[in-house]
Amino acid sequence: MTLAELGNELGISHQQLQKYETGTNRLSAGMLSNVADVLRVPIASLFEDENQAQNKTADPSARARAECHSWIDRTGSTERLGMMAKVLKVMSAD
Questions:
Q1: What is the three-state SS of the chain?
Q2: How far apart are CA 72 and CA 81, in angstroms?
Q3: Cα–Cα distances in Å, from 63 out to 8, 41, 55, 60, 90?
Q4: How many Å apart are CA 8 and CA 45, to the nearest integer?
């Protein structure tokens, strides 16, 4: 999803999203909730505490697993989830 597409879903410009991204403007709690809804992720996944950041850099495989989980969680289609499962199954066969 591009910034423009996300902006359309949220009813704001991609420039405003860039301001949120760079920290020029702050996200309200309501907008944060909307972003999580559009991205189909829990609000908590938009935050990262220090321990998580340290763990991710310490264990690259844990970081990769977390990234895979994130993409899986964003997928709303049962058909696409099935395709993802097949790809992962083939790739995991050593």
A1: CCHHHHHHHHCCCHHHHHHHHHCCCCCCHHHHHHHHHHHCCCHHHHCCCHHHHHHHHHCHHHHHHHHHHHHHHHCCCHHHHHHHHHHHHHHHCC
A2: 7
A3: 30, 17, 8, 5, 21
A4: 22
Query: Does 37 share its domain with 79?
Result: no
Region class of 91: left (phi > 0), else alpha (psi between -120 and 50), else beta: alpha
Whose tokens are 């220090």? That residue is 50
Domain count, the chain: 2
Q: In terms of residue numbers, what domain contains 70?
A: 49-94
Asked whether residue 64 falls in the same domain as residue 92, the answer is yes
Tell me the pLDDT of the chain averaged across its residues.
82
The CB-side HSE value for 87 (13 A sphere, CA atoms) comes to: 8
Q: What is the mean pLDDT of residues 62-76?
A: 81
pTM for the structure as a whole: 0.52
